[in-house]
Amino acid sequence: MKKFRQILAIAGIVLLLLLYGSTMVFALMDSPNSRNLFQLSIGMTILVPVVLYAFLLVAKHLENRNRKPEPASRIKNIVFDVGNVLVDFQWDAYLDSMNLAPDVRAAVKQATWPTPQWEERDRGLRTQEEEIRVFQKLAPGYEEEVRRIMEKENDSLHLFDYSRTWIQYLQSKGYRTYLLSNVSTHMLEGFREKMDFLSQMDGAVFSCEVHSLKPEPEIYQVLFDTYRLKPEECIFLDDRVQNVEAARKAGMEGIVFTDFKSAARKLEEYGIG
């Protein structure tokens, strides 16, 4: 649109120069039609700038209407964790839904989440089959149950009802939205299935794809470098204190997420909302 306005302005200048030149020629001509041509040229010299100005006003209006509004605060980028922020991770409810005997449930729970092995799998260095074997070793005698639980683990994921609308609202206000999440390769498939708006995000960094975990400094730097973000223009929402603290050390603002309403209020304190 801007290029169109520039071309229109140049064309208008050229046309006006031609009109001014023709006006001078008609003024000096000695012919029966010279007076009429001179008056017509004068009229066009007045009319053309008015028409061009009207075109430019319309073009500017259309450009402003299609442009995203600029954020009011210095924060331009809102970075979200996924689990327990945009997607509800309900591991205990998932185990309950599998109708396991109490001893089986306890063994599977102890072997899977939360464990250091579960955290490490988010680094994305092993296949899903290799990960299942790791958890099976932590629950000897319950290998089949562990496999069944892990193969359907994405049933533990549920999109919060506010997530899609929240992202769309922030984008409508001119903010760019990103994801920064610790997630395994297999569970990332579940994220993609639940988050049908993922393609509308401005970017995403997943631990299993970059082989680095929050709160390690490297994963935050990957986000900045990949999308050319200035840390001081970013705010990060995560449900884990240590991840938010690491984000602040990396130069971002941070909010420890507990629930949607309180997070929205805290964003308003930064002039976001």
Automatic annotation (TrEMBL):
Key words of the record: Membrane, Transmembrane, Transmembrane helix
Pfam assignment, any one: Hydrolase
Entry superkingdom: Bacteria
Ranges annotated as spanning the membrane: 37-59
InterPro entries, sorted: HAD-like_sf, HAD-SF_hydro_IA, HAD_sf, PGP-like_dom2
Gene3D superfamilies in alphabetical order: HAD superfamily/HAD-like, Putative phosphatase, domain 2
Descriptive protein name: HAD family phosphatase
Annotated organism of origin: Candidatus Blautia gallistercoris
Lineage: Bacteria, Bacillati, Bacillota, Clostridia, Lachnospirales
